[in-house]
Amino acid sequence: xxxxxxxxxxxxxxxxxxxxxxxxxxxxxxxxxxxxxxxxxxxxxxxxxxxxxxxxxxxxxxxxxxxxxxxxxxxxxxxxxxxxxxxxxxxxxxxxxxxxxxxxxxxxxxxxxxxxxxxxxxxxxxxxxxxxxxxxxxxxxxxxxxxxxxxxxxxxxxxxxxxxxxxxxxxxxxxxxxxxxxxxxxxxxxxxxxxxxxxxxxxxxxxxxxx
Length: 211
What we know:
Blueprint: H1 6-20, H2 27-45, H3 49-52, H4 58-69, E1 88-91, H5 92-109, H6 116-138, E2 151-154, H7 156-174, H8 184-187, H9 190-206
Antiparallel strand pairs: 1-2
Helix pairs in contact: 1-2, 1-4, 5-6, 5-7, 6-7, 7-9
């Protein structure tokens, strides 16, 4: 078996560091970022690309991963969302809709064939989000203190994380991707439905409920 190239190994290391912080990225995107960083170091240090690679140590890659992930700092990457403050009120009815929306995202990802490892990571993230959502609903007795319908309290970070997942799925469908065993006619209205839910979740995440 041929040894992996420096680039392939560093892409793997970068993806692993990002995954450890609770997020995922495609190999192609990670490769582009790595190439850009090598080029930047080479230009700043006035050295060749080969020499610049020596500066991309494990610590440097860990720093890159933090830069990437903490660009989504409001989603508190890597945090235990079950123990995070639950300050956003979410109607139970809407939570069910979001749960179903995440299922549709999985169907969309199932037709991707270019990067199966990335697809597995993304599906795992969605499954985790669904699990958190379901457990948080189960863990509470719904109240009507914030809305005029039964609601539960959610961590804003979870709502923001799920909103990003749904928004990405809406982009994929608008680019022509049709989910696994999905009727193309039904798929046509999916982006607008997902984006409506995204707006609502981001609004809910910004509201503080004292109930």
